[in-house]
Predict the structure.
Amino acid sequence: MVGPDYRHPQANPPAQWGETLTGGETNAPVVAAAWWKNFNDPELDSLVALAVSSNLDLRIARARVREARAQSQETFANLWPRVDSSASYARAQESRQQPVLGSLPVPADVPFENNVYQAGFDANWELDVFGGQRRAVQASSAQLAAVEYGRDEVLVTLLGDVARNYIELRGAQREVAITGDNLKAQEETLTIAKDRFGHGLTGDLDVEQATTVLKTTRAQVPVLESTIAASIHRIGVLLGREPEALMAELSQPAPIPAEPPMVPAGLPSELLLRRPDVRQAERQLAAATANIGVAKAELYPKFYLTGLAGAESISASDWFSGGSRFWSVGPTVTWRAFDAGKIRANIRVQDARQEQALANYEATTLRAFEDVEDSLVAYAKEQARRQSLTEAVAASQKSLDLSQRLYANGLAGFVNVLDAERSLYEAQDALVQSDRNVSVDVVSLYKSLGGGWENTSRNADALAQK
């Protein structure tokens, strides 16, 4: 066959990940199917199942796969003969003055007006001598696989988006709870300040400062409530429903899904076989390579076998008699003699597209490694940050308890109480955010590892076909 034969591009993945695996990650083989179940949250499991069955982006991706399959079948059909059948009836009159016949004496009783009945078959088969059609089949098959991996990439993104938005929702709800606890403590502090002011033990500055801290903390609640509503709206849309559809179901606060104790990261070499975007780019390169052969085949002659058979008569009574039959069969050769360089220009086009596809594959591979490395770093560093924040919350709580006792006994200024309250609230809020970030980082790590599409994609397609 004309054109280059496809060879899988060679990749040089690193032997190990650059980030030291100290945060619960291991080099054990990745078990990424249904990774969201590692969070042990039934609500999350339910949301993922609904998203897989009803997400609109995934529905579009499935439709693209069906389109590509039909196109691949259409291309494969070009390898086979084409047979057309036809039947016709016409009332026709021929000219008496036509060339040759018009110059001869014709008896008056010769009919020039007749009924014409015709039926037959017309066959045409292009012999794929130089492999252009077979290269087209290769390109179509590779493009079909690329579209299927594109659907899987949509699924990976969907799984990550549902889990991330759900975790952010629970994190915002936890922040609202922490803010509520701090508001109660600050209201008690304001009550103490007012009582001391009423007894003449302090000035009104303490009251005003306590009021300022309370109002400032209360101002955070609308921001958090907006985040909660936006997360619920986003989850609803991801499930192919109205933004408000899940408001009643998800408004009830629940804990932030805790990260699993261990996250297998696998080896870098395994990533290229697992990430659907990498496999999609590789199949696009295969299709681009085959299309070069399709273009080059146009430089060579095309060979056809053609045939025609049928029956024709001016009378319906003897339409199918032996004398009414006609047929013809034979080879045909066509070869484009002049096209002003169009074919060679198309070959250069396909060469350039193959070069682009190769560069895209290499870039996609590098981005895949980058995603995993970034996720590993973020996951490990956020766990270290969370540990420090946990200690900071404990220290801030002790500081607040001590400052309140000292203030109540007149041994410390009110500003110490306010500073301690502010520090405790900031530390608690940061700790909640860190808890959320750790779980989100696990989601990002699973997503970067290309997890969740293998079994889920097949199951989703089976449900979509029912």
